[in-house]
Amino acid sequence: MNHPEGMPNATYIEGKALAAATRARVARQVAVLATEYSVTPGLAVVLVGADPASQVYVRNKRRQTIQAGMYSFEYNMPETTSEESLLQLIEELNADPRVHGILVQLPLPPQIRVAPVLSAIDPSKDVDGFHEVNTGRLWNGGNAVVPCTPMACQMLIEHVRGDDLAGLHAVVIGCSNIVGKPVASLLLRAECTVTMAHIKTRDLPALARTADILVVAVGRAGTVRGDWIKPGATVIDVGINRVECSSSGKQRLVGDVAFAEARKTAGAITPVPGGVGPMTIACLLLNTLGAACRQHGLPVPGDPAAADSPTNGNAARHCAT
Ligand code: NAD
Q1: Are 45 and 105 in contact (CB under 8 A)?
Q2: Are 168 and 269 part of one and the same domain?
Q3: Whether residues 174 and 249 fall in one domain
Q4: Among 71, 132, 142, 212, which is disulfide-ready with 42 (CB 3.0 to 4.6 Å)?
Q5: CB-CB contact of 262 with 235 (8 Å)
Q6: Do 194 and 269 fall into the same domain?
Q7: What global pTM score does this model have?
Q8: Which atom, in ligand 1's list, is nearest to the CA of 148?
């Protein structure tokens, strides 16, 4: 069902603008931390190999870390790096007091197992939130470092729906450890009724049509069609897919949701690009700020530009302090 005659299309959830505002706020908080406590957060990003997409992500992370006033430490290791060498570097970074956050860019080359690498990172420096201590705490309702993309999803949802999501039905399509499962956990913490769906789920269109909030992270362009959307639903499209443009032959990025169809029915929807992606890096900066404060036994500073909001709203609530 489309919006009734004369009703506007879905609100476009401006991830880019929200990310810019979040980064600016982090920069102000970093400045307060440096002035009042002489602490400058430091983020170490480790890239193994030369995957072009990973190189772009790492470059963006580095640029935005520096723009926020933080230290950026970059480690580029060759494709042939052994698991032992990577673990050795992580041990050094765990012990380095200038480094408050450690991010190992995924995917890793096949000779390196992901699980031991993620487990080797000090949980308090695990700004990706992938260490089992943090995933366990997230599900237990404890003080976890929340993975960046799921945090971004929740912030985007709350941006359009407010932070009272209690009782809403959230359907999360895709249940990976890095996106789907932590998104479901966060929405459960927000008192949504959460259904997790995946490739084997039966009658997915009918299930999706019951969702007030639909989060899609499957990695296949156009998986969710317009007639899968409940009128007025909030749709968060996490997917990043490269498709060839039929007219120019050039590649472009699209999400997992058939955007042009879905926006006719949804209440609000994230674009791809410009939705979840930019917010993910902003959340990485939030996590690095939170990690630096925690390691120095300091509270996350209030935003000097928001005199009436010492906690800085949702973002601060998401940071493990
Ligand atoms: P993954 O491959 O680890 O998991 C995919 C999940 O989708 C699985 O649970 C699978 O069962 C499910 N699935 C696959 N095809 C399906 C179908 N046709 N119907 C229903 N379920 C289906 O993927 P991931 O790592 O979670 O990433 C998902 C997407 O999100 C990818 O496009 C990835 O590039 C993107 N991503 C974006 C960001 C960001 O910052 N925007 C971050 C991480 C991942």
Answers
A1: yes
A2: yes
A3: yes
A4: 71
A5: yes
A6: yes
A7: 0.94
A8: 40
Q: Can you tell me which atom of ligand 1 is nearest the CA of 279?
A: 40
Domain housing 178? 147-277
Backbone angles phi, psi at 253, to 5 degrees: -95, 135
Indicate which CATH number applies to the domain containing 53. 3.40.50.10860
Q: Quick check: is 3 in a domain?
A: no
Pair of tokens at residue 124: 């308090």
Average pLDDT of the residues in 303-307: 80
For atom 40 of ligand 1, the residue with the nearest CA is 277
| Residue 76 phi, psi (nearest 5) | -105, 115
Q: Per residue in 118-174, pLDDT tens?
A: 999 999 999 999 999 999 999 999 999 999 999 999 999 999 999 999 999 999 999
For β-strands 234-237 and 268-269, DSSP reports them as parallel
The answer to whether residue 167 sits within a structural domain is yes
CA of 236 to the centre of ligand 1 (A): 13
As annotated, the active-site residues are 61, 105, 128
Tell me the CA–centroid distance for residue 219 and ligand 1, in Å. Answer: 4
Pick the residue whose CA is nearest to atom 30 on ligand 1.
239
